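Researcher: Go.
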Amino acid sequence: MTENLPAILGEPSKDNFPATVDAEIGYLSQARKLLDAGFPDHSLLDIWNAAVHNLRRRMEAYGIELFTSAVKEEAGRKKFDKDGETLGERWSGVDDLTLINGATKLGVLNKKAGKSLEMINWMRNHASPAHGSDDSVEAEEVFGLALMLQKIYLKLRCQIQAILLQGYLNQLRVLSFRKKTWTC
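Model: Structure:
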């Protein structure tokens, strides 16, 4: 079955997916090893970890103040720790679904990408070893979800610079607004 393996699992690299970093490549490589060893449910968890790591980085590049503003009415935890030393520490007070919803609202994720991540989140919570379940994750399901994420990562080749530029411009607007507010 590995002849149909999505490139994101078969050949994860920064050359193939320039919007990734070493940590994400490591998660995806581990996901492939777990899939080959017959543990698709554990593989899904590493795919999830790679996707969330990537989304957190993109959200930081886009602008935390904008994210905080976008999720202020959302249910769930949404406390970003700007003093955290690692990505995980900074985002430990933010629920994953809040992250996904905020990124989708701001356009950092398109709606299909957001729904794909919501699906993986549901599966990891209801059909994986992370939580007891009568339902299990099958290799074909991991392939399908990996294909959806691969499309998201491939699209980022063109979009990542636009996201960073949009975040920078939005930060300038926020700073400009603050300056105008304080000088009145």
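Model: The longest helix spans residues 139-183.
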